[in-house]
Amino acid sequence: MTKEEFSKIDKFGVCEPNEAFAKYFIGQSFLKPLTDTKKGEFPIFNVTFEPGCRNNWHVHHAMKGGGQVLICTAGNGWYQEWGKEAVSMEAGSIVVIPANVKHWHGAKKDSWFSHITFEPAGEGTSNEWLEPVSDEEYGKLGE
């Protein structure tokens, strides 16, 4: 499936390349703001991954609250917490990631993947980007 074809089935469409965070991804991702943070609106984004694209391991730190929520809008992808098996995601899948949990998410090898993401409010929040998900780790995932 091409980017243009996928954009038609993703309710929010594929936007511009995610250049600001490209160094934390293997493959191309796209970022579409769904709210206007310049007006003080709660930040919500649609993130699209080309087939095989995934972000690095990372942690959303917080002393209280925080974390991250993923809501798959189209395609098929993976979510994995450190030390646990990867979880398959498809349109309608929701993952609630507690603060301070090392994890990654991205597209399956043969599918585009989009999810809405937001970070619940918290105290002492920060994001820490870690090592890439190796080709070996990623290659072991089933379809």
UniProtKB/TrEMBL annotation:
Q: Which SUPFAM superfamilies match?
A: RmlC-like cupins
What superkingdom heads the lineage? Bacteria
As recorded in UniProt, coiled-coil segments are none
Start and end residues of each Cupin type-2 domain: 47-110
Q: Name one Pfam family in it.
A: Cupin_2
Gene3D superfamilies, per database record: Jelly Rolls (2.60.120.10)
Question: Which residues does the annotated region (Disordered) include?
Answer: 124-143
Q: What is this protein's name?
A: Cupin type-2 domain-containing protein
